[in-house]
Amino acid sequence: MAGIVRLFGHAVGGRPAERLLARLGMALGHTTILRHVKCGASGGSATLRVAGIDDWAWKKGTTYGTMIVDLERRQVVDVLADRSADSIAEWLRGHPEVEIVSRDRAGLYADGARQGAPQARQIADRFHLLLNFREAVERQLGGLGPPIRRGPPSLANDDVDPTVTLTGDQPRVSEAERQALTRQGRDADRQVLFDQIRALYDADVTIKDIAKQLGLGLRRVQRWVRLIELPARNAMAPKPCTPAYYGAYLEARWAEGVTAVKVLLAEISQRGYTGSHSHLARFLAPWRMAITTMPADPSCQLQTEARIPPQMAAQDPMTGRRISSLTAAALCVKPRGEMTPRQIVNVDLLKATSAEFATMRGLAMRFAGLLRGSDIGKLDVWLRDARHCGLHAIRSFVRKLRQDIDAVRNAILEPWSNGQVEGQINRLKTLKRAMYGRASVELLRARMMPLN
User: Cβ neighbours of residue 77 under 8 Å, at least 6 residues apart?
Assistant: First the structure.
């Protein structure tokens, strides 16, 4: 019967199924076989004590289902057609014997487990914990959070360069100033790339070889080799939803002494402004910063951009290109023993050029170490150090950990994880693709679960 199910799963219906039945000598229709196959799958009568839960994509980005695996017996228990807290809670209510629920960091699975199995201990998957930390590092390095505002705490890790520290009197950088620095860095990288293209083209290197060597598109190289100087990026004209559209009026009112965001918001709203209060506050932040930091001697006043020390962008010595925030985040959480010589060079370079990266690298190694251990006290110390590190994205990550702190502690104490569930999901994807997307959830469940 299992062999028939495997063969029949590739021919879900129609002529392929009919030809298969004819070769097997079975005087039955394919719909009859499908009905019996769907009814023949069962998770068994064994008691389910440790359940692993994760989602799978029926149609990526649109429709998702849920898979439940018995981690002790390494078998699929059920495949649900949707991904919701209510369906998980209803399923767990029918299995009151569940003692442990291993899951990812999705809030809906946590809510479903609390509602359907309040007696069960929840475990946050260790892989997803490290993945969430890497995403926080990427957000911080990508300029989506404020920089370090104070010196980092002393980290008990030899991987952090002790010479890379921040002084307490480092000037605070606003979000608007940080965005300006990010734009300046991107423009500098763009200019370096243009100079490389021009130098290769002047050395009689073909356009196709230039694009291949630098990893660029052919059209971009064709367009840039015709230019003598790199033109500035085109700036979009301001719209009524942006404060810059009312820049002249805001400058006049600011000069008259009106600096309250709420008052200015009411005034430009009457003139057609449709943006938000926070957008206007960010637009006015550099003006307010210039007032609070204005020196006593007006002749010594510096522009906002001039007060900020430029940050050196780390470049890969092998390619000469800037190391992206995605690559730097992946290197930040990777142990040195698993790195290639090139990755080790890039990590050392990032630590030397970025105090943020050096701080997060130390926190990452400590976090990975405590997930492999069983000392809850180390977790509390790590949470305290990460909360006081001065990095916005890491502090946000710590806040989310504290909201799920019991599951995080269980991840350190318990040996269970969602590794088995991920493997079963890969198996489901293979079966689904082999059936060319024509199978129903019931048939996928029948092929994933053991037969009676």
Answer: 43, 48, 51, 68, 69, 70, 449
Q: How far apart are CA 12 and CA 34, in angstroms?
A: 8
Contact criterion met (CB below 8 Å) for 142 and 134: no
Instruction: Give the Cα separation of 451 and 3 in Å (integer).
Output: 11
297 plus 330 within the same structural domain: no
pLDDT digit string, tens, across residues 230-242: 766 655 667 888 8
Measured distance CA(282)–CA(261) in Å, rounded: 10
117, 101: one domain = yes
Highest mean pLDDT among 79-83, 140-144, 445-449: 79-83
Exposure class string for 359-379: b at 16+ Cβ within 10 A, else e: bbbbbbbbbbebbeeeeeebb
- The strand ranges marked E within 71-214 are 75-80, 100-103, 121-124
How many domains does the chain contain in total? 5
| Highest-scoring range by mean pLDDT, 161-170, 310-319, 380-389, 429-438 | 380-389
45 falls within a domain: no
Q: Among 386, 387, 317, 371, which residue's Cα sits nearest to residue 348?
A: 317
Helices (H) and strands (E) in the chain, counts: 21, 5
Residues 408 and 326 in one domain: yes
Of the three residues 203, 235, 267, the one that is the final residue of a domain is: 235
Q: Tell me the pTM.
A: 0.57
- State whether 216 and 272 are in the same domain: no
> Do residue 246 and residue 258 come from a single domain?
yes
Provide the residue range defining the domain that includes 274. Answer: 236-308
Task: Check whether residue 298 and residue 212 sit in a common domain.
Answer: no
Out of 149-153, 304-308, 360-364, the most confident range is 360-364
Task: With CA atoms as reference, report the closest residue to 405 among 156, 129, 180, 19.
Answer: 129
